[in-house]
Amino acid sequence: MVCGKCEKKLGTLITPEVRKRETAAVxxxxxxxxGGRKMATNTLLSQKNxxxxxxxxxxxxxxxxxxxxxxxxxxxxCAYKNxxxxxxxxxxxxxxxxxxxxx
Length: 103
Hints:
By secondary structure, this protein is mainly α. The chain has three helices and no strands.
């Protein structure tokens, strides 16, 4: 659950037209050295960040589990149960008379 103010902060996806133009440029050129995408490379071996341990990962303020959404302070389960915004914690919904469960 995200409030109206925090909805603007959510990440946006790249437009599909950019992706189509990029693949068309790669398929039209005969060699990959012309600045196109690299083909047949193992992305797991070529990752920039080799350190898997992240000591400063964001955890939920209520239940202390890891938060998946970037920029949020509460996990989706706690935000749903309490009727608060996952990013800023503002009360969105009055859940007094609701019977909600989140596993």
